[in-house]
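Practice problem 4.
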C-alpha cells in the first residue's frame, strides 16, 4: 500500500496543476502569516516601506502576471502540439511532465495569486503598518523569483517543441528507466524462466483491461510471504492485457489473496516509463518512422534517432538478468526479464520497415547493429548479430 501511495504521489508531482496549486497555497500562507513576523523588523521602516509603497507594486503584478500566464499557456500548448505532430502523438504526455515548464508557470500563477490576494487584503485593512512592511519584503522576493522565471522561460522557449528537445526528453526518460532496471534487475524479484505455467498454479485475474503500468513488488512479496506461496507475473510492465485474463500466477492462494494481489498491479489506458524501459525505445522508433513517412521524408532525423538508440542500448542496457547472481529483494515474486532481443525489436525493426528504400538509413542501421555486436553483454552481442542478419542490412551505405 505504501508503494502504491508513493507511486500516486510521484505521478501527481509530474502534473502541472500540482505545482501550481502548491505554489499558490504557499503564496496565500505567506500573506496570511506575514503579520506574525513583524516583531523581527524595526518599526522605523514601516513609515517608508508600508502600505503606500507595496500596494502599487502588487497592483502591477496582479495585472501583468495574468497576461503573462495566459500567453505562456498558449505558447506551451502550441509547442507541444507541434512536437507531437513531428515526433509521435504519445510524446505529448511526456512533454506535459516537463519540470521546467511546470516551475515557470507555477511561479507566474503563484505571483498572480499572491499579488491579487495581497491587494484584496490591503483593501480590507488586514495589515497594520508593521504587517505591511513584512509584505513589502516578501513582495521583493516574489519579484526576484518572477524575473528569474521569465529569464528561464525565455531560454527554455528557444528549444521548446523542437525535434532536438523532444528527442532529448525521450532519451533522458528512457535512460532513467533503463538504469532503474540496472539497479533492480527483474524489478528486484527473481527472474522468471520460460518453463511455462505450473499445473497447480492459481490465476490472478486482471482487474481491468489496459497496459500493465506498475507492479507493487513490495506488496506482492508481502502477500506471497503471508500466504506461504510464490507469485509469477504473467505480463510484464508495458504489455497489454484484457480484464479477467491472468496477470500473474500463484503457487497457491484463495480468492481474497488473488484480489489483493491483483490490486497491487496497476493497469491503465496508456503505458508508463516507471517500470517499462522499452517504452522509450518504442517512442524513438515511432519518431523515426514518422520522419521516414512520404509526407516528411527526413532520413536525417531517423539516423539521429538510431544514434540515440545505439547509445542507450550500449550504455544502459539492463544486465543479463537471467544469469544474475544478485540476491533478489523480493524473493517471493518472479518477473519476466527484459531481454536484449526484446529491446532490439522495439528499436530497429520498425525503422527498417519504413526505411528499407533508403540506403543511408539502412547503412546506419547496419553500423549500429554491428557496433552492438561487440557489447560486453553476450546476450546483446548475440541478439544484435541475429537481428542484423534477419533485417538483411548487409553493408548498405
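Answer key:
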Amino acid at each position: 500500500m505504501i508503494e502504491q501511495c508513493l507511486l500516486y504521489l510521484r505521478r501527481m508531482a509530474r502534473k502541472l496543476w500540482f505545482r501550481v496549486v502548491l505554489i499558490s497555497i504557499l503564496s496565500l500562507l505567506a500573506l496570511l502569516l506575514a503579520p506574525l513576523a513583524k516583531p523581527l523588523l524595526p518599526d522605523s521602516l514601516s513609515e517608508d516601506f508600508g502600505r503606500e509603497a507595496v500596494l502599487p507594486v502588487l497592483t502591477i503584478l496582479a495585472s501583468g502576471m495574468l497576461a503573462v500566464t495566459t500567453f505562456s499557456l498558449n505558447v506551451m500548448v502550441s509547442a507541444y502540439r507541434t512536437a507531437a505532430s513531428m515526433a509521435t502523438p504519445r510524446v505529448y504526455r511526456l512533454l506535459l511532465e516537463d519540470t521546467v515548464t511546470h516551475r515557470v508557470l507555477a511561479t507566474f500563477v503563484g505571483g498572480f495569486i499572491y499579488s491579487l490576494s495581497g491587494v484584496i487584503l490591503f483593501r480590507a485593512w488586514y495589515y497594520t503598518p508593521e504587517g505591511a512592511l513584512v509584505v513589502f519584503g516578501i513582495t521583493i522576493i516574489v519579484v526576484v523569483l518572477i524575473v528569474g522565471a521569465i529569464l528561464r522561460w525565455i531560454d527554455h522557449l528557444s528549444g521548446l517543441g523542437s525535434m532536438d528537445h523532444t528527442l532529448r526528453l525521450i532519451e533522458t526518460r528512457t535512460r532513467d528507466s533503463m538504469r532503474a532496471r540496472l539497479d533492480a534487475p527483474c524489478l528486484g524479484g527473481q527472474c522468471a524462466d520460460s518453463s511455462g505455467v505450473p499445473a497447480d498454479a492459481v490465476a490472478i485475474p486482471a482487474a481491468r483491461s489496459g497496459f500493465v503500468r506498475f507492479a507493487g513488488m513490495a506488496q506482492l512479496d508481502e502477500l506471497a510471504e503471508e500466504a506461504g506461496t510464490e507469485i509469477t507475473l504473467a505480463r510484464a510492465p508495458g504489455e497489454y492485457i484484457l480484464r479477467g485474463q491472468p496477470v500473474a500466477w500463484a503457487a497457491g492462494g484463495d480468492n481474497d489473496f488473488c484480489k489483493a494481489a491483483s490490486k497491487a498491479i496497476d493497469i491503465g489506458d496508456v503505458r508508463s516509463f516507471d517500470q517499462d524501459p522499452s517504452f522509450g525505445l518504442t517512442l524513438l522508433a515511432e519518431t523515426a518512422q514518422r520522419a521516414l513517412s512520404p509526407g516528411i521524408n527526413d532520413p536525417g532525423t531517423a539516423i539521429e534517432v538510431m544514434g540515440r538508440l545505439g547509445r542507450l542500448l550500449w550504455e544502459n542496457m539492463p544486465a543479463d538478468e537471467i544469469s544474475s547472481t544478485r540476491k533478489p529483494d523480493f524473493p517471493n515474486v518472479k518477473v519476466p526479464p527484459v531481454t536484449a532481443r526484446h529491446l532490439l525489436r522495439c528499436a530497429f525493426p520498425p525503422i527498417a520497415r519504413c526505411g528499407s528504400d533508403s540506403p543511408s538509413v539502412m547503412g546506419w542501421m547496419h553500423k549500429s547493429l554491428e557496433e552492438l555486436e561487440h557489447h560486453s553483454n553476450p546476450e546483446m552481442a548475440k541478439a544484435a548479430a541475429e537481428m542484423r542478419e534477419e533485417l538483411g542490412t548487409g553493408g548498405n551505405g
